[in-house]
Structure formats: structure tokens, C-alpha cells
Amino acid sequence: MRKLGLAWQILIGLILGIILGTIFYGNPSVEKFLQPIGTIFIRLIKMIIIPIVISSIVVGVAGAGDIKKVGKLGGKTIIYFEIITTVAIVIGLAAANIFQPGTGIHLDSLAKGDISSYLSTEKEVESHSLADTFINIVPQNIFAALTEGNILAIIFFSVMFGLGIAAIGEKGRPVLQFFQATSEAMFNMTNNIMKLAPIGVFALIGVTVSKFGISSLIPLSKLIIVVYATMIFFVLVILGLTAKLVKVNIFSLLKILKDELVLAFSTASSEAVMPKIIEKMEKFGCPKVITSFVIPTGYSFNLDGSTLYQAIAALFIAQMYGINMSLTQQISLVLVLMVTSKGIAGVPGVSLVVLLATLGSVGIPIEGVAFIAGIDRILDMARTTVNVVGNSLAAIVVSKWEGQYDGQKGIKYLASFEERN
């Protein structure tokens, strides 16, 4: 009998979790018993992310060994991220204007979620400028950056360290071999941890459904439908056309990433799949130096799904309060989102935090966020999935732009993947 693939195992875990959560809706015992299991799984993934990022970047950059090449790679990456996230914001605003998800909703029919935990962070984000983002890329203390999980600072240090190893030539070979072995060991750990994904998904989704219940989705169903439909449109049309421009089929990419997309959707955690995404994009023909730089950086600068959602959610809240935003105000909203959504991926509940910071600056009541906080997990599942697709495609686009994409390697990997599945 053929063994079930990981995607099917995760899907079964997801369905069983939904069933359990629905049966025991409102029962705190579900969270008490299942939350530790889900938390342990997410922690196992987070535990290996920083060693993978450091070792992969050091090996990749030391192999390239040219500061001009690395600088050019960084510049092209940021330009691509800025273009695609701006398109995502515009698509989100267009969808909210066309479908008006907040119109006709009675505020007294909605349950309020607790947003107090996000308000303190929101003040920091509101004062967060693009200059601050670039200043914070350079760590004062690399050990503090490692402890805090400051991924941009870790990337910067790893790039500089990789260049340092390349500059000392033969003397740096033992250090390079150490990081090569570390990288391989970490990816082996990833494969072992991923075997626990179905159990982690079962626990996380069971807790979520038992807390909010299926019935709480009904008053906000129009928002959920608009968000999901717009996300699908963005992936298939915008990212699909982008993929076509670099002669890649978006459906081939989705096929390769199916396990990771199901896991990202189920856990609402893009970190849970970062190690496998780096590994798969390298197998798909992208060089190590590009995958190990572009994908982790994308977690701070290329949150397509998150920025698209924030644009829809901002207009949804405005429509809910009967506020008619002019074109000028909406352009202002785009500009604010372009700044506030960059470089703060490590902040807990980042999308709600960015939304709180953005609403106040364009005259929309921030209290409106409380009405969608209860279903944020459901929306987070969609935006996380889109973020994963966007960052995976970014690695291919930048590899093609740099003229370093190995098309034959990609074709062979796709063929062998289809054969195995």
C-alpha cells in the first residue's frame, strides 16, 4: 500500500482538528491539552530557522565571494519586493472598493475581540520609518540579534561574515566546511521535524476552532470571502503573470510547494515552512546564495498576502463605520502601508499591529480592528499562504534577473517530483 504523502497527512490532521474543535466548542479543556502540542511543534521549527539562515547565507556568499555581486543582488531584491507589494496593496484596495465587504454590517451584531495586547506595539510601529528599518538591519550586538530573532540583522551579519571568509581564501576553508556541514545537518533536522507536522496542525486548528466556533464566521463571511477570493486572484493572475514573464508556470511552482502550502495554511505560520522553501527552491534551480538571501529577507520585505489583506481590512473598517474614503485618502493609505509593513515581521500579530498603526494615520477608528480580531486567525491562514508563494517566486525572479537560474535543474526536479507524487 502506498504511503500517504505529507500534504494528505496534514490535510487529515486539519480536518480532524476542525471536527474536534467544533464538537468541543467553548470547552477550555481543548486548549489546555492541545495548545502545548501545537506550541512545541512551532518552537521546533523556530529552533532551526536561525542556524539554517546563517549557515546557508555564509556558504552561499563565501562561494560568490564578491561584494559587488552581493550588493547588486540586494538592490534587485528590494526593488522587486517593493514593486510586488505595492501591486498587492493596490489589488486589495480595488477589491474592497468593488465588493464593499463592510457595507451594510451592523456593528451591534458583531462580537469584539481583545486587541489590548497589540496596542503597545502599535505605537512603536506608528513611529517606525523606512530609515529605522535600514538602521535596524545593522546589529549593535550579533548575540542580541540572535536572541531576539532579528532576522534582518542576522542576514546582514551572515553576508558580511561570508564575504570575510571569502576574502581570507584558503585560511577560511575550515570555517566554510563547518558551515556547509551545519547547513546539511539543519536540513536533515527539518525533514525529521516535518514528520510531526500533521500532529502539530491537528492541535493548532483544534484549539482555534474550539475558541471561535464556526458560527462566529457568519456575520463577517463577506469579508472572509472577499479576502480569500482576492488572494486567489493575486496568486493566479498577478504572481502567475510574473512567473510567466520569467518563463515559469505558476502551477508547477504550486505543485512543488503543496506540502508547505498546506502546512502554512494550517498553522498560519510562514516560519514553519521557511527551511523547506529554501531547500526546495535550491533544488528547483535557484543558486544557494540567492535562495538563502531572498527568502529570509522576503519575510520582512515581501509580505504580499499581509499587505493585500491590510488594504482590504482598512477599507472594510471604514465602510463598516460609514466613512467614505476619497481617492487621495486611499493613495495616502497605500503610502503609509508601504512604510509600516516593512521590516517588522518579528512583531507578534504583525498584520493587526500594522493595521492599527495605519488606521490612525488615515482617520479610520482603530477600535474597528476589534471587530475582526476574532476571525484574524482564519484570515491569517490565507495571507500566510500567499506570503509563502510570493517569497518562493521571488527567489526564482531574482535568480533569472541575475542570470543564475538553472533551468535544466528545475525541469529535472519537477519531473522527479511528479514521478514521486
Automatic annotation (TrEMBL):
Topological category with respect to the lipid bilayer: Multi-pass membrane protein
Keyword vocabulary terms for this entry: Cell membrane, Membrane, Symport, Transmembrane, Transmembrane helix, Transport
Region forming the signal peptide: none
Major location category of this protein: membrane
Gene3D superfamilies, per database record: Sodium:dicarboxylate symporter
Spans traversing the lipid bilayer: 7-28, 40-65, 77-99, 151-169, 196-218, 224-246, 307-324, 331-347, 353-375
A Pfam family matched in the record: SDF
Cellular compartments annotated: Cell membrane
Protein name (database record): Proton glutamate symport protein
Species for this entry: Paenibacillus sediminis
